[in-house]
Amino acid sequence: xxxxxxxxxxxxxxxxxxxxxxxxxxxxxxxxxxxxxxxxxxxxxxxxxxxxxxxxxxxxxxxxxxxxxxxxxxxxxxxxxxxxxxxxxxxxxxxxxxxxxxxxxxxxxxxxxxxxxxxxxxxxxxxxxxxxxxxxxxxxxxxxxxxxxxxxxxxxxxxxxxxxxxxxxxxxxxxxxxxxxxxxxxxxxxxxxxxxxxxxxxxxxxxxxxxxxxxx
Length: 216
Ligand code: ADP
Ligand code: ZN
Prior knowledge:
Layout: E1 2-7, H1 13-24, E2 28-30, H2 31-41, H3 44-54, H4 61-72, E3 81-84, H5 90-99, E4 105-111, H6 114-122, E5 124-127, E6 133-135, E7 154-155, H7 162-186, E8 189-193, H8 198-211
Parallel strand pairs: 1-3, 1-4, 2-3, 4-8
Antiparallel strand pairs: 5-6, 5-7
Helix pairs in contact: 1-8, 2-3, 4-5, 6-7
């Protein structure tokens, strides 16, 4: 199975993807994580992507598709995989279908209102050391600005500031929303209400996946 997580930035794709990964054993592949790693390591891809990401734009299709092609060729993807943050354009959707055409597919579109999204992302804090995710209101760390898991410093992702969030949402509506119509026409589109607690969102998504014959 190829599980595609659609949904705006801040809709909770990462959290949901991790839960589905634990339940199914499918690896979660986040193109945002792959790109941030490339930026940290200063690879040619990272050097190309850094400025675009910081401005809230989209990295070019060929670069991102290359990352995904390499990743889904790994043996742990044989039984299935979860794509988080990819595809984001129709060209990327076509590319993954060409790379792995026989794979059954389900597209979970996490629907969350824009006000909720801006509040979630603006308050999001990430551990610099281990990547754990917190929120200043919804999931505060015990001592302020220190990671509960490892004691690392919590920072705001440079593209999570309110102004950049609005730009990311605009880009999402323009480039990614057309994917909804495409997957609806293909018959693999499944909307999921993304409001509320992570456990509730997961139960809704798990219900959909079970209906598609996914073992959880
Ligand atoms: P979010 O979904 O919260 O925006 P991500 O971590 O998925 O966060 O992505 C962060 C940034 O990485 C995006 O704003 C974009 O610049 C870049 N990026 C991630 N995935 C893609 C993709 N599939 N195509 C183009 N750019 C991408
Ligand atoms: Zn940590």
